[in-house]
Design a protein that fits this description.
Blueprint lengths: L3 H22 L7 E2 L5 E2 L5 E9 L5 E9 L6 E2 L13 E5 L5 E9 L2 E10 L2 E4 L5 H10 L18 E7 L19 E9 L9 E10 L4 E3 L5 H7 E2 L7
Antiparallel strand pairs: 1-3, 2-3, 3-4, 4-5, 6-7, 7-8, 8-9, 10-11, 11-12, 12-13, 12-14
Length: 242
């Protein structure tokens, strides 16, 4: 004869699982604290990004980045599965003017920073690139003539000393201050820097080299108007005096 107590046990287990799941889906778990000062709201006022952190003892902090709607519903975790190497610091965020794109400016350590790009899908966001956005920017730079004489290990983000991928100010205004008159929410302007400090034989480095990412086509380029600036951004070591 079939044991109905067996059915009851499984129902309780299933209900327990169903009740436990929303605890994470509904927002940060216990132990994570809100940094209210870091909260930002999308230009269309429909979404907000909140940052939560949890202490990890000697390992520092672990951050989670959540989006919610204006009534604090539809929670969505932007950075699932990240350890404190990628999420060990508070981040900065910028929305595109049309609120459909989100850039995360993530510190990685002293003198190191990268970028992540997200695309909006209703109340949620998904990574817009297969690799971290900052890594793709370095791939582009090291595939360009501007990188002549410079070296890096693409498997190691720390192979470039003080490597920083930064979002140039003005995304929320379509970079009007650059005088480019670009279409609304079409481009993201990136600034790249690293140095060769500590090398016995220093090679060239860059300080604020700029490129543009086209959100429609998913491609990088360097507008003609950036040529003069980028020429000055490439730095060459001084010859050693005999």
């Amino acid at each position: 004869m079939f044991d109905h107590r067996f059915i009851g046990t499984w129902i309780l287990l299933l209900l327990g699982g169903a009740m436990a799941a929303p605890a994470h889906a509904g927002g940060p778990r216990s132990g994570f604290r809100l940094n209210a000062e870091a909260t930002i709201t999308s230009p269309d006022q429909t979404l907000r990004v909140e940052q939560y952190s949890r202490e990890l003892g000697d390992q520092g902090l672990l951050y989670q980045f959540w989006t919610f709607d204006r009534d604090h519903r539809h929670p969505f975790l932007l950075n699932p599965g990240e350890d404190n190497e990628l999420a060990g610091y508070q981040a900065g965020f910028r929305f595109s003017p049309d609120s459909q794109w989100l850039v995360r400016m993530q510190k990685l350590g002293a003198g190191y920073q990268t970028l992540f790009l997200y695309r909006r899908n209703g109340y949620q966001f998904s990574p817009a690139t297969t690799k971290p956005f900052g890594d793709l920017a370095w791939d582009y730079f090291f595939g360009s003539p501007a990188s002549k004489g410079m070296r890096r290990d693409p498997r190691d983000r720390y192979s470039l000393h003080h490597a920083q991928v930064s979002l140039l100010k003005g995304m929320e205004e379509n970079y009007a201050w650059l005088g480019q008159h670009w279409p609304d929410s079409r481009y993201v302007v990136i600034s790249l820097s690293f140095d060769t400090q500590g090398q016995e034989e220093p090679t060239p480095w860059i300080e604020g080299w700029r490129c543009v990412y086209d959100l429609n086509t998913g491609t990088f380029s360097v507008p003609a108007g950036f040529a003069e600036h980028n020429a000055k951004a490439v730095k060459n070591p001084q010859p050693r005096s005999e």
